[in-house]
Design brief:
This protein has 654 residues and is mainly alpha-helical. The two termini are 44 Å apart. A two-stranded antiparallel ribbon has the order 1-2. The longest helix is centred in the N-terminal third of the chain and has 26 residues. Among the domains are: 97 residues; 76 residues; 121 residues, Lysozyme. Helix content is 64%, strand content 1%. It is built from 38 helices and two strands.
Amino acid sequence: MVPVGGYAPVPAPGQAPPSASSGLQPLPSAAASAAVDAQREQDNLFLQLREASRQNDADRAAGLAARLPNYAIPSYVDYYRLKPRLRDASNEEVLDFLKRYEGSAIADRLRNDWLLELGRRRDWAQFDRELPRFVKNDDYQLKCYALLSRAVKGQNVADEARVLLDNPPNYGDACAALVAQLAQSGQFTTKDLLAQLRLAGEMHATGPSRRTALLLGASDTRAAQAVDVPALAMARGVGSTPAERQIYLVALGRMARTSMKLATVALNKNASKLSAEELATGWANIAYAASLTLAPDAYDDWQRAAGAPLSWQQLEWKTRIALRRGDWKMVRSTIEAMEKPQREQTGWTYWLARAYVALDRKDDAQTLLRRIADQNSFYGQLAMEELGQQIATPPSAAPPTPAELAQAASNPGFKRALKFFSLRLRFEGTREWNWALNNMTERQLLASAEYARQNQILDRMVSTSERTRTEFDYTQRFPAPHDDILQPTAQSLGLDQAWVYGLIRQESRFVTDAQSGVGAAGLMQVMPSTGKWVAEKIGLADYGHGMLNDIRTNIVLGTNYLNMVLANADGSQVLATAAYNAGPARARSWRGLLNTPMEGAIFVETIPFDETRTYVRNVMSNATNYAALFDRRPQSLKARLGTISPRSGGIGLP
């Protein structure tokens, strides 16, 4: 492989770097060694500069940047020099940076940073000039500042704000200021503020709870207690004002997370002091808490909550509990009560279609299913099967030509990405790679994905190839590396190879040295304690924690553990996948709540952990695609999901 633009392709761990082109004469060893040492020193200075900038140490950043006048990525040297001084930098200095690097990923990153600073200063004139130039437009705080800028000018933004303001833990200064401005200008009514108070309590956001209580003329201390010390807040009583009663109901919902019995007794005791809507809200708070543990009373609690204003999370869990009960009328009515953006999400579109089928509205169901059936995702695949189709691999596009690959290799963004990957700066490398994909044609995307494959950056290959809509290469989307290790290992254990690859794709996207925040390592993201336990069980001699990133060891440990959780789940891939992510004890407890067999898709939809629910969906969808690719015939996701039966037993696992 020939290095491009001075950046060497990133070797896989354990592999030697690719050799230089035969057209280049090797340097004398002393000169080569000196060049390597010099580059290593420059890279080390750059990493120090990055860290100084992240710590807002402007003086140290300036000193380090001065020692990197000819570094390979000058835009980032300038960015890391400027970022710690952004609060004090003049508009002219920032605009000069943006002009020099206009159109680049790092310019858009600085524009994001600067817009946040302009919003903090309330410099709406400069903010409004710069916001339309922000390409990513994915910053929650900036969306709030954008509405705030319009609101202070007298524009009515209440409807847009109601949709946006649904995540109090992420509010920060921008969204808090927006809520305050809307309240003070009368655009937000008491009803809106009470809804914000309920949502903040539901999502354990103490700061927003305090601020909203003050806007309502209530005690911010009591609001904080309702979230953090609900027993104390409940002991103070229901209160006399609507805000005080909502604070009490927040405390009731928080208490239900730890003691459903105490919360239920308290609500029944104080029912006469609450309006009909407030009483229903209390039951909704209890029903939500019960739903998160799949408690048997959750369905009845939701019935008692009729007439309560529900948050988006409560609507989702009311729907899930209705699915578990098989109450398709409740499924339909609850999904139809969602706001349009939520209702039109792929999952709720699918379940609404299923409700229409059950309620003999087949034409309406077909319309919804066709809307999502072209999406190669968990719900898109299920929709295909509802329409009588199965999941197959589409015809493969013509491979990229040498000219198309050469164009990809010359892309400056990819060159920067390769440099970052060589420095193990995956966040920056991914940002540069993804930015370079903007406005690419289908053919350019396929060539870029192939270029990622050539450089052994398989996670970028997968994500890049997934962007195509008319031309496909499923060997890019669903790669099967290390088959010489995985295939015989899976075969010896009797594991479905498609499922194992589907799990690896979700766990690490084939980044061999992937490391999670909790310490899981390698392709199969094996936890150190699990690796040690499995190594002892299978008699792996001389095993040490440092071996977890070794590809062979990681696959051997991961597949053996997967085989154990599969046996413990009576062969259910759904249960075993959930156990692999959330732990066998949790998967057993969820299964233990079943009294009768449950459709696999409904079981997956009602997994209480958001992360695990998404994980299982993706793994099972991946596995179906891998099976179609490996077997060269259509597959059924529904058959793979199967039916989840009540617990029968199982071996003990960590």
